[in-house]
Amino acid sequence: MSEKVMIFSEVKNFTQDLIDWQKKLGRHDLPWQKNRTAYRVWLSEIMLQQTQVSTVLNRYDEFLKIFPTVERLGAATVDEVLAQWSGMGYYTRARNLHRCAQSVMTDHDGVFPSDPKVLESLPGIGRSTAAAVAVFAYGKRAAILDGNVKRVLARIWGFDQDLTKTLHTNQLWSHAENLLPHKKSDLIAYTQGLMDFGATHCTQYQPACIDPQKGSCPFKKSCVAYLSERINQIPLKVKKVKVEKIDMTWWVMIHQDQVLLEKRPEKGIWAGLWCFPESQELVKEPSQAMPAFKHVLTHRQMTIKPIKVHLKKRVRLQENQQWFSLNDVGGLGLPKPMSLFLKSLDLVRDGE
DNA sequence: AACACGGGGGG
DNA sequence: CCCCCAGTGTT
User: Fold this and answer.
1) Residue limits of the HhH-GPD domain (predicted)?
2) Closest residue to C3 measured CA to C1′
3) Are A186 and A216 found together in one domain?
4) Distance (Å) from CA A323 to C1' C7?
């Protein structure tokens, strides 16, 4: 048994059902669905990469009016292109759009290539966009796999692997290719159907299977995510916690064998635990920077910079502060780096 | 406020 | 391969 079959069980007639669905319930009147030249298709795909259909609808015709051909676009200045793009965000797209137009003019005799692999070599065109242009403009047999399509395929086949992993996304790519219709005449309806079904029915939140207002889902009977009540878990994208880098100062105030500690607020990091004060302004005794060290938490990488001050008298600067003998700190609630640090203080003291 | 999106670029 | 980024719109 091949790997493909093990991962993606048979969903009967998916391809044909989707084609039928598209013909009946898909979108047929979007401006870029008429007169599907490579230039028009390409422009719409780039605009749609990170921008909603409703926004692109307001911009597409205007853009084409100003840059009616790939030649005119390539001949424009990048500033003119950026000006026309303004408000749509991700301005790298506009710069690549311009570069791509120039490359089509100089490297491809002014004609967009039809081979997805060649399209993919152009600026701003990745695997999915290349396939879309090849299908819509040239009727080629190529698979798209954008965010909408990933959601549709992952849900129906119950593919619950982490899609931030290249391996799993590649498995989905293979699956997308296996699903392509064999009749070339079906490719446009099929590809458009994938896009439309994902955008209007198999939406991220409240898809049609649980929201009748969106219509009915033709795949309800076989959709693994729906049948196993995992619509909200699939597709799975494990977001890596962003590790924030933080510098923290510890004022290590020492008087004889005692240190001044501060009970931290009940909210935030190390809530309610005892720590060195992170700031102080009143004490003017000479201070000495100690070696900084790192402490790593799930979501933070802290660089702790202790500053030692030997005080002649015990002062308490705030209500939440208290002096402790080093012999007693062991009984306090201390965050990990505090207990490690205090132990090292002990060693220093013993060594003295 | 958190999340979603395709592609590029650097390590 | 992995990570990070960019900007607007949606939930």
Assistant:
1) 47-200
2) A240
3) yes
4) 51
